[in-house]
Design goal:
Helix content: 10-25%
Strand content: 25-35%
Low-confidence stretches: 1-10, 247-274
Distance between the termini: 27 Å
Radius of gyration: 20 Å
Strand order of the largest sheet: 3-2-8-5-6-7
Mean pLDDT: 85
Length: 274
């Protein structure tokens, strides 16, 4: 669905990817152009593209028909669109664009929702880990690499042997499953200092600049293999997907039509029934 927006001041950029995870396409305008290492880039006013950062991969997207990858450029302080390095030779650079030019921006919504599901599931894993008295020290929300690493301020004897680690993992799985079954809302609030804080209802909150699902009931196929302990760090790996997304954006409301889905959480394998 295409949305048009009113023009803002020159150089202003709206981080639309933070406002609506599920917005797939907009008509906007170019607000800046330039080069980075000899490669053209363009920044658009209404930016749908989430750049890589915070443990989350960059979105896949397009400006008109040109495939792009978003990058946060420190000099202009904007998220800029560049041709992907892995693109074909004929698509190795953006076509010439001019400031003020109207363009259509689009993201790969399937990839976006996959990234959002992993990121939200990571926050949930962090939340249930903190219930054990652990402190998060690292996170990664990339597909195939997703994990949260903790440290235990006090010795946790349950982690000393395989049976104990499996027992603790079962506790984590049960807590994750309960939160997903409760379909806790996920939302963001901005603090007075400008920081954006993402909340899993009252269960957990953390500063975050990533994309997230609307509620934990959007998560599916959440799986936690048995945790590992290495060099004093507790590593909880996980996988998660988004429930089949069939909602339709309602113009002018910022909402989506609901759909039915049933979550499931397991150790190494999950199945869903509808």
């Amino acid at each position: 669905m295409v949305h048009s927006i009113e023009a803002l001041g020159v150089g202003a950029q709206v981080s639309a990817y933070l406002d609506d995870t599920y917005l797939e396409q907009v008509e906007t305008r170019v607000i800046a152009v330039g080069e980075r290492d000899g490669t053209r880039w363009a920044a658009v006013e209404y930016c749908l593209f989430h750049p890589q950062g915070g443990g989350q991969p960059a979105d896949r997207g397009w400006l008109e028909d040109a495939e792009i990858i978003p990058v946060r450029d420190r000099e202009p302080g904007l998220v800029v669109a560049m041709a992907p390095e892995s693109g074909s030779p004929e698509n190795s650079s953006l076509p010439p664009l001019a400031e003020g030019q109207k363009v259509r921006a689009r993201i790969d919504l399937q990839a976006r929702t996959a990234h959002a599901a992993l990121h939200t599931a990571g926050h949930l894993v962090e939340a249930v880990g903190r219930m054990q008295g652990w402190e998060m020290v690292a996170s990664n929300h990339f597909p195939g690499q997703a994990r949260i690493e903790f440290q235990a301020p006090r010795t946790d004897t349950r982690l000393a042997d395989p049976e104990g680690r499996e027992e603790v993992t079962a506790v984590l799985r049960a807590a994750v499953a309960a939160a997903v079954a409760d379909d806790l809302p996920v939302f963001a609030r901005c603090l007075a200092d400008g920081r954006r804080v993402v909340h899993l209802d009252e269960l957990h909150s953390a500063p975050c600049g990533g994309t997230h699902v609307r509620s934990l009931g959007d998560l599916a196929e959440v799986a936690l293999p048995t945790l590992k302990v290495k060099k004093g760090r507790i590593r909880v790996s996980y996988t998660a997907t988004h429930v089949p997304y069939t909602a339709t954006h309602v113009p002018g409301t910022g909402t989506h039509l609901p759909y039915a889905a049933a979550p499931h959480v397991s150790g190494t394998e999950s199945r869903r029934s509808h």
